[in-house]
C-alpha cells in the first residue's frame, strides 16, 4: 500500500478541567472518516474508559466527548502530519508533531500518557525535550495489541491514570 501525506483532520478535545492528557499516534482511516478519536469499532479505547469510570460505552461523538470531559481527560495525538499507508503506525514517516502547548496552557495537566508505542516513540523524539515533560506509556487499545485483554488494559490504564484524577 502506498503512503499518503496527511494532516491531522480534527482538533484536540480538552477543557480547563482536564487533568490527564492521552495521546494517540495519528488517526486511523476509520477515525479520519468519523472525524473523531478511536473510530475503529474494534479499538478498545472507549470500552476501557467506560469500564474505568463505570459508564455505559458511548455510541456517538457527543457521548464520547462527554465521557472524556466529565472525567477530566484530554485527547490528542502526537502527530500533526505524516506520510502513512492506510492505518499502519509502522508505515509512518515524515512526521511533524502536534503543538501541545495550548492544551498545557489551558488546563492543569498533571500527567501525559501515550496510547501505545508509536505515540510514545514520537513524543520522546519530538516533544519531550521541547515541553520539558515526561510521558507515560500505556498499552495500546488497538485491536493489533491482541495479547492485552480488555480486562488487563483496564487494569493497567486505571493504575496509571486514576491517581492523577483525584482532587
Describe the structure.
The chain is of the alpha/beta class and 167 residues long. The chain has a 4-stranded parallel β-sheet. Strands 1-4-5 form a 3-stranded antiparallel β-sheet, covered by helices on one side. The longest helix is centred in the last third of the chain and has 12 residues. The chain starts with a strand and ends in a 6-residue tail after the last helix.
Q: Percent of residues in helical segments? A: 25-40%
Could you say what the CATH architecture is? 3-Layer(aba) Sandwich
Number of strands: 7
> What is the straight-line distance between the termini?
47 Å
CATH class group: Alpha Beta
Strand content: 15-25%
Question: What's the CATH superfamily, by name?
Answer: Uracil-DNA glycosylase-like domain
Q: Estimate the mean pLDDT confidence.
A: 96
CATH topology: Uracil-DNA Glycosylase, subunit E
As for the number of domains, it is 1
Amino acid at each position: 500500500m502506498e503512503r499518503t501525506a496527511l494532516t491531522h483532520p480534527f482538533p484536540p478535545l480538552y477543557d480547563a478541567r482536564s487533568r490527564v492528557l492521552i495521546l494517540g499516534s495519528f488517526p486511523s482511516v476509520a477515525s479520519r472518516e468519523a472525524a473523531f478519536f478511536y473510530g475503529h469499532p474494534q479499538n478498545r479505547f472507549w470500552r476501557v474508559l467506560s469500564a474505568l469510570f463505570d459508564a455505559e460505552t458511548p455510541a456517538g461523538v457527543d457521548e464520547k466527548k462527554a465521557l472524556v470531559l466529565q472525567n477530566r481527560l484530554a485527547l490528542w495525538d502526537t502527530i500533526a502530519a505524516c506520510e502513512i499507508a492506510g492505518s499502519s503506525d509502522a508505515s509512518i514517516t515524515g512526521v511533524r508533531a502536534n503543538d501541545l502547548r495550548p492544551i498545557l496552557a489551558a488546563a492543569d495537566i498533571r500527567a501525559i500518557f501515550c496510547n501505545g508505542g508509536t505515540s510514545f516513540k514520537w513524543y520522546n523524539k519530538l516533544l519531550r525535550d521541547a515541553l520539558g515533560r515526561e510521558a507515560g506509556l500505556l498499552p495500546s487499545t488497538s485491536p493489533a495489541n491482541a495479547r492485552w485483554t480488555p480486562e488487563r488494559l483496564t487494569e493497567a490504564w486505571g493504575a496509571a491514570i486514576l491517581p492523577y484524577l483525584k482532587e
